[in-house]
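User: I need a structural model of Cell shape-determining protein MreC from Cruoricaptor ignavus for a docking pre-check later this week. Nothing fancy, just the predicted structure tokens so I can convert them on my end. Input:
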Amino acid sequence: MFSRNSMQRSWIAAQAAAFNSRVSGYIDEGASYLKLKQINEQLVAQNRQLMLELYGKDYSRNPQFRKVHDTVGGGQIYTFVDGEIVYNSINRQDNYFTINRGRRDGVKPQMGVIAPQGIAGIVVNTTNEYALVQSVLSVNKIKINGSLKKSGYFGTLTWRGDNSRIMHLADVPKYVPLAIGDTVVTDGKSAIFPQNVMIGRVAGYQVDTKTGFWDISVELSEQMGKLSKIYVVKNLRKTEVQKIQDTLQAAIKKDDQ
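Assistant: Understood. Predicted structure tokens for Cell shape-determining protein MreC:
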């Protein structure tokens, strides 16, 4: 019937063409998905390398004074472990998110976590495969040092629980000049985050009548409700820093006695 009738032949040809088009479309979509996944993995690796260049090394040291057997690679301070968010919350007083990296990847409590656009949180617990991270959106359990990039003055960054886009920077003297849009970054004075990691920009400011210091509203550069890719910060000198800080605590305790 189909071989002798032109109408039937044209109909079956159209159906075959439509079927082939659908199959080709599925193949193209699958190939595109695999290609996008490959491109995304390449971008993550490139971002990790950029972070090593930006934050990973101590450029303040004179190379001639570095020891050849330096265990941190000639001035390297930080390395980074990339991962992904598997659970996230932003609507509680103290928020957490879970990442797919854990002890097996060298992740430990008190390691900083940053995202492509800025800081994200601090690791509080781990299993072999996963880590629980305290989000910067936490009222009671997290405080981070933030610095005004233009002036270098630093203060304490906290969240007040009312807006997932805004944190507040305190302890900055009121004589420090400010402007809307000024950049706020990490100050590097802790063993958790490198210096100059983006936090956000000044969204508003007023004098706190109780303290006499600025109360600065900081709009976060990272949208915490859209977190996907993250990087865990590993400080290669954290143990050494902790040892010297412990000597100070021991001296204070001795003086008190």
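Before docking, keep this in mind: Residues 58-74 have pLDDT under 50 and may be disordered.
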